[in-house]
Design brief:
Largest sheet: 4 strands, mixed
Number of strands: 4
Strand content: 25-35%
Distance between the termini: 54 Å
Order of helices and strands: HEEEHE
Helix content: 25-40%
Strand order of the largest sheet: 3-2-1-4
Length: about 90
């Protein structure tokens, strides 16, 4: 009985995660620009948005591989990787 309940909870959480991945996020394209902030010391890459007015950066996710970059692009409806500038 406990195993059934645990499986039901896991399935429900899994379904919610899938729905969250399918839902596209939005950002203000007039004031925000998608960027990947790269560390020159250790090569770490963080995807996020740079405010074009203030220059501030808002982190969204760590980019460890090409699948992470693809996930970021899909989340925000970015069609081409060359739309994302790299900043150091």
């Amino acid at each position: 009985m406990k195993l059934k309940s645990l499986n039901a909870i896991l399935k429900k959480n899994s379904d919610n995660s899938k729905q969250a991945l399918l839902k596209a996020e939005t950002y203000d394209r007039e004031t925000l620009s998608p960027v990947i902030k790269c560390s020159i010391c250790n090569g770490e890459q963080v995807a996020g948005f740079k405010n074009m007015k203030t220059g501030g950066f808002e982190e969204v996710m760590l980019i460890c591989n090409s699948k992470d970059l693809e996930k970021f692009m899909n989340m925000y409806g970015i069609n081409r990787a060359d739309e994302i500038k790299k900043v150091y």
